[in-house]
Design brief:
Layout lengths: L2 H120 L6
């Protein structure tokens, strides 16, 4: 073996190993970059959860409080409507009673007036 041939083998071995090392280095570099990006995404997701989770929880509490208030208002409206119906019935009964009283008074006055007219025609004086 001459020196040229040995140098060729050595250069080939170094070249192949160097090429492999460069390829492995680039793959490792890309893998590292991908891991960093993945970690950044995880950190951003966690930060968003930490920020929005209390807001969502607070919003759920507000919604629950609003639902309670709505139920209270619905009950109050129902109570007021029932009271209104009762008052309307009471007023209708009072009106009917007053109409009956007016009719009775009108009849009584009418009878008294008729009697007075008859008495005046007969020449009697009206009793006061």
């Amino acid at each position: 073996m001459d020196m040229g041939e040995i140098m060729t083998y050595v250069a080939t071995a170094l070249g192949a190993g160097g090429l492999t090392q460069i390829i492995n280095w680039r793959i490792s570099k890309r893998k590292g970059i991908a891991e960093v990006k993945s970690d950044e995404i995880d950190n951003m997701r966690k930060a968003m959860e930490d920020f929005y989770k209390p807001l969502l929880h607070h919003q759920d509490e507000r919604i629950a409080a609003q639902n309670v208030r709505i139920a209270e208002l619905e009950n109050e409206v129902k109570t007021l409507r029932d009271e209104k119906r009762q008052m309307e019935l009471s007023y209708q009964k009072q009106i009917a009673d007053l109409q009956q009283q007016i009719t009775t008074i009108t009849k009584a006055l009418g009878i008294k007036a008729s009697k007075q007219i008859r008495d005046e025609k007969k020449g009697k004086t009206a009793n006061k």
